């Protein structure tokens, strides 16, 4: 059994696992993915009770049309193994992925892969169906990101965690997602590109993390547009007000989508028998070749996934 690496993830909603009201409300929002959080959105005192709330929400809730993910605690804590065991034993058949935060090297992902396999075998779930999302949140994780991205066939995405990342490298800013004052260029460019290269090398999705000024929708749009332009597949959303913007920004513009479909049609026709098996075609005054077809496929694929 293998995981699905191409599910839509334009909007990935963070839901505190300790809050039954939010667990309920999340089911009604038009997001591509929810992740029910046992890590930083849960205070230490409620982390254990949140496991049961998450199992209940997954098994009794209606998550139709959404990718379901649970974020467990990172491997420097003592919570991780019980998070995984409780949630997967309790609701494994309703769960698409486990998100592992603050991943530092490939062994941490392999640990999770093995544990998932053991649980799946023990309780009779198909082995290998539950995917893994790896969050890169510190310099060690980024330095090892190539190895991490290739560490398990369960991996579906590499996720940038800007809040922890900024703290871990001592970046001089207190507003997550904003540029640090004093630096004249984009302080996130290198990190975003580094993650994107590793993800694409292993045919994984790349997901941008949160923007914490939740009432500043224009600020969210601006930050999202940057990673979307690079090729990122989606971004975390923390508030219903960010959802629609994420779904829009990480979908192709209608004009681009229509143009991509025209390119594919023109290329298919030119290379077919009717078109004389040519290697290129003209679309208006634009020459279309195999590389144009590949670029068009990316846009068309995202548009089709978004139901355009
Ligand atoms: C997310 O986990 C972040 O640290 O930004
Ligand atoms: Mg974090």
What does it look like?
- With 308 residues, this protein is of the alpha/beta class.
- Helix content is 45%, strand content 15%.
- It has helices at residues 20-26, 47-60, 80-91, 106-123, 139-143, 145-149, 162-168, 189-201, 217-230, 240-249, 254-271, 290-305; strands at residues 11-16, 33-37, 67-71, 97-100, 131-136, 155-160, 205-208, 234-237, 281-283, 286-288.
- The protein has an 8-stranded parallel beta barrel with strand order 1-2-3-4-5-6-7-8, surrounded by 6 helices.
- The longest helix is centred in the middle third of the chain and has 18 residues, at 106-123.
- It is globular, with a radius of gyration of 20 Å.
- The model has no long low-confidence stretch (mean pLDDT 95).
- It binds glyoxylic acid (GLV) and magnesium ion (MG).
- Glyoxylic acid is lined by residues 101, 135, 137, 161-164, 209-210.
CATH class of the largest domain: Alpha Beta
At the fold tier of CATH, the topology name of the largest domain is: TIM Barrel
- CATH superfamily membership of the largest domain: Phosphoenolpyruvate-binding domains
How large is the radius of gyration? 20 Å
Number of strands: 10
The class by helix and strand makeup works out as: alpha/beta
Biggest sheet architecture = 8 strands, parallel, barrel
Encode the helix/strand succession as letters.
EHEHEHEHEHHEHHEHEHHEEH
> Please, how many domains?
2
Q: What oligomeric arrangement do these chains adopt?
A: single chain
Helical proportion, percent range: 40-55%
Bound molecules: glyoxylic acid, magnesium ion
CATH architecture descriptor of the largest domain: Alpha-Beta Barrel
Report the average pLDDT across residues.
95
Number of helices in the DSSP assignment: 12
